[in-house]
Amino acid sequence: MNSKRNWRQPSPREMVLTVLGVVTLGVAVLSMAVSYQILQPPFGKWAVPTVGALDALWVVFQATEILSCNNRRRAGRVRWAGLALTLVNAAIPTVDLALRLKHTGAGFDLAVVIAPIAIVATKGAWWIALPALGRRVSDKTRRTIATRRQQVADQLEEMEAEAADRIELLELARDLNERVSEAETAYRLSVLATQQTMTEGLHEQAETTVKTVAEKVLPAAVAAITLPELGNWKPGTPALPGTATGTELTDRHTGGTQVSALPHATGTATGTPDGTPSGTPAHPAAHTGTPADLTDLAAVAGVPVPHPGEQLTDAQIGVVLRHLRYCDDPPLSFRQARASYRGAGYQGSEERIRHAWAALRANEGHSEITDDSDEEAAEDADV
């Protein structure tokens, strides 16, 4: 059974030797045919055993070299003898071809040219392939070697696969890091550009707003306008100045004048029917009506709402003084304004209060020095 199995399943070494043996026999037959044509005229019948002996010995020496395996000491003489026969068999057609070309110059047979080349090439193939085939081993040993080689090959393949996976992971991580870095850089650049644009726009608008607020102070009538609320709004229109109904539309702060359907009050002498009493300023009529809310005045001026006990700015001091001017008993002089300011609990130096009062009076269209002097003189006379 084992012999049959080995015959049906030859080893790779046996397959290589079989192929080389078939090639060697073919070359030996070609060499015999060519050598017989060359040696038959001079040797006659002796050409057959001569050619047969040369080629048979060449094949035998090659087979003996195979049987000696890797024993160099045993195979040495056989290898050199086979090499010598190779040279002899190749020299016969080569020399005949050279002599024929030299003497007659006639054409030559293709087999004569191919024969020496085939002989030398076959011997060279054996010289190269035979040492690489190794020794002949049993099936068990061959299977053990094949199993071990397969294990080594599997481990090497696994190592190569792991290395390839690692390389692919590193390359992908590098690409992802580059993409993430580029995206983060672009995002930071966009944020910085947005902040720059926002800062420039806000700075420009802030400068324009400060300039507009400083140059164009909104009248108190704007802050006095009530906004409609959901559920409490009713349709209607306010009375306009000059209407037949005589309904007033009070403007709390329009340069010291009152918008009304009635004639404007003037500072005429005592005894005038529509005039004011002697010594009474001509502007108190501007302070009639509902007192303005401090929050609305602060919103119109664009400043935070002033609170008692806090350190106020000049603009906030002006808002407080304007609020005091719209109360039921408005101050008519700097002393009264200062007393009302202090009495309300607000802080501020006298010099800052005086400047704010002067600005308020100038905005109302009055001379600070003249009006305050007259009002203070009237207060001293009353005292």
Which keywords apply here?
rod-shaped; mainly alpha; 383 residues; 12 helices; single chain
Give an overview in words.
The chain has 383 residues and is mostly helical. It has four domains: 2-136, no CATH class; 150-208; 240-286, no CATH class; 290-383. It has helices at 2-8, 12-43, 47-67, 72-103, 110-133, 139-215, 220-224, 294-301, 314-325, 334-343, 350-363, 368-382. The longest helix has 77 residues, at 139-215.
Draw up the topology in text.
Elements (H helix, E strand, L loop, with lengths): L1 H7 L3 H32 L3 H21 L4 H32 L6 H24 L5 H77 L4 H5 L69 H8 L12 H12 L8 H10 L6 H14 L4 H15 L1
Helix pairs in contact: 2-3, 2-4, 2-5, 3-4, 4-5, 8-9, 9-11
In short:
The protein is 67% helix and 0% strand. The chain is an all-alpha fold and 383 residues long.
What Rg do the Cα atoms give?
64 Å
Distance between the termini: 149 Å
> How does the helix and strand content classify structurally?
mainly alpha
Number of domain units: 4
**Major β-sheet profile:** none
Strand content: under 5%
Mean pLDDT over the residues: 73
The general outline is rod-shaped
Order of helices and strands: HHHHHHHHHHHH
Q: Helix fraction?
A: 55-70%
Per DSSP E runs of 2 or more residues, the count of β-strands stands at: 0
- Quaternary form: single chain
Which parts are unreliable, with pLDDT below 50 for 5 consecutive residues or more? Answer: 242-291
Number of H/I helices: 12
